[in-house]
Design brief:
five-stranded parallel beta sheet; 647 residues; twelve-stranded mixed beta sheet
Length: 647
Amino acid sequence: MTAELVRGQNHTLPQTRLEIRVSAGTPVVAGATLGDENGTVRGTEWIAHPGSPQLPGLEVSRQAAADHRLAVDLDALPDPVHRVTVLLALPTGVGGPVRFGAVASPFVAVTGLDGTEIATFTLTGLDTESAVTALELYRRQGAWKVRAVGQGYAGGLDAMLADQGVPRAAELAHSIQDAVTRAMARSVAPPPPRTPDADRVAPGAGVPGHVPPADGRRPAPQPPEPIAEPATSPPGATTGGPINYAHPRRQSAAPPPPPPTAPPAEPGRPAQPVAGDATGWSMDERLYNQIWAMFEDLARTTAAYRSAVDFAESRMGQELDRALSDPRSRIGGAGDRAREEARAKRDELTTRAREALDRDLAQLVAEAAVVEPALPAAFAGWDNPVWHAYRVPMEIPMALRIGDLHLPEDPALHIPLLVRLPLERGMWIDSGRTTSDAAALMDSARLRSLAMECAVAHAARLLAVYPADEFSVHVIDPAGSAAGALAPLVRSGVLAGPPASGAGGVASVLAHLTRRVDLVQMAIRAGAADSLPPDVDTGEQLLIVNDFPHGFDDRSVTQLRYLADEGPSVGVHLMMVADREDAGAYGPVLDPLWRSLLRVTPVADDHLADPWVGHAWTYEPPRMPPGSRVLEQVLAKVAAARRPRRP
């Protein structure tokens, strides 16, 4: 079955000998670059183009054409190669179209040698771009996959090559276009309209080297996905405001072009933010990098404001000390005038600092307003409409949203808190009283209930972003006190088994997961992963532990510490719902456990310390919209996707 990809989506390749077929409404230049594991093109010898069409394992067309066939043998690529990127560009200097927005949307298909389509991608949404990165084949954990990219460049072929780090990109682009211009007399014209007799014409008849698509026609272009396109500015440019949106984490030397809907910035005013305005191989990766760049910008501008306020206060104190150190200044109005002048200077400096902060915050608020609606499900809040179109994914995303962060200077500006997947550490959801005002206003029973509901929400998100049957959830509830909070997981049938209760249930679940960690670790060390017993589930596992330490003996505590330390490396993760003070009876034996877990809270709390600038970030847990059934709907789809796969 053919996978019809949209921008950013990927698909596993079932074979290594492939053809990449390009069909466009006008002659285009087709080429490909080879990249290492970091995506770096090491030199011109790693680029296949009409002037140098052959590389080990790769061959491209020698001229501009409306249709292309690129041959790829992934097994024959050099060992350092981890990525093959397919490039398309409009030829220059031949009187043809100068932007993709003026021609039909190019269509790219990855096929087997027999012509069977594996994945297709229609490059919609292009406008001023004259070059585009169509798709990429990349190797991950020993398997090859294809990803639809569709990143255009208004700067043309040289901008696209420069974006991949090719040295002297402009010279190389000029030489490629020269080679194309010399061969334009032999270029292939667009195919004629399909006729009823076309089925009786052999592939390639009448046109050397031309093979039409398998069905003899180009598929109808698909509508673009509702994700804002990246914006651009010249290399090294700024957007006109104090926050520099062109720093290396946010844009490459040749950033992507602006969307047709993004109006140009007026002189002296900052550019309008656009979702995906960061470097990355896919929209998800660009959004991930953009979110963390927003976090850094907020941290930096707030640190500058606080530093300016501290300086103003310190300067006022120094001026007052100097003015009042002379006893004569205390007689008459000299002392009062000195105080007024010092306070006026303090107020002026503080006002200027606040104006700069407000300007920066306004830019970040505007950026957050366009980024939030464009987020994929794994990055989005529960109130994002993307969850209403949720489908069980085929591959895990690069990160997961576990809440929001904000600072007191602007509590309304929330930055998503993302953690990479697979999880590198477990989570501790604090069910006890904290120093936050929200926790102080609640009784202990309500806090414990909220903590368990928070754990269920996190577990549901993990289940939702993993492919079917690749993530399992186990629950230990010794006293059965979390039955209400666990109801969505239990009713949907997504749990690996009923919540374990009592001493016997606790011991059984811990023994099962401990055995799984031991066996997988031994298999990995011995290089014998295929020899695992058939009852060992090698998918990712999550253990939710409620009401710790009640119902746990010394052996179970030791097993929990073992799972927290050794589990993440082999796919077993721990989520503790516990009150730190209640667990204090165990003394320092639990300190390593707490240090190995990421602490979050069921209510807003400013416990996350930032060693970079010294901020205390306020963490906001994920919230369900009032009256929403999105959690039940998502879990129902997860359960439905799992059911046919089970014997």
